[in-house]
Specification:
five-stranded antiparallel β-sheet; globular; about 120 residues; mainly beta
């Protein structure tokens, strides 16, 4: 079963629209944040076991306007960025279980990994 994904359209300073894919939500200091990646960024490493392509990751604070039933994604405060980056890095590492197997008889790096990091479809 495929997981439902959230996409958000932003407009840059030149008026160009671009789409980001929300890959995670988390709370920090009582506020909600989102981790986003470029939904259209292409990778040429589809069939390679290890991908060296860089992916831009964005951290945005979510402001909810309950009266208008909308969400606004804004840049976090500069003083929070170091903590937010650390949180996101830890969350992304926790999502991948590739090298956390205690088994001695199997190769969980690719064979039994279900975190999706080896699925290049």
């Amino acid at each position: 079963m495929e997981e439902e994904r959230d996409f958000v359209v932003f407009t840059d300073d030149d008026g160009n629209d671009f789409e980001l894919d929300v890959i995670d939500y988390f709370d920090y200091k009582g506020e909600e944040y989102a981790v986003l990646i470029d939904a259209n960024q292409e990778c040429d490493c589809e069939n390679e076991e290890e991908c060296d392509c860089e992916t831009n990751v964005y951290i945005m604070k979510i402001i909810v306007n309950e009266e208008e039933d909308t969400e606004e994604f804004v840049s976090p405060a500069d003083e929070d960025m170091d903590d937010l980056i650390e949180i996101v890095q830890a969350r992304m590492e926790d999502d991948c279980e590739c090298e956390e197997c205690d088994c001695e008889d199997c190769d969980h790096d690719t064979e039994h990994c279900d975190c999706g990091c080896h699925n290049k479809e």
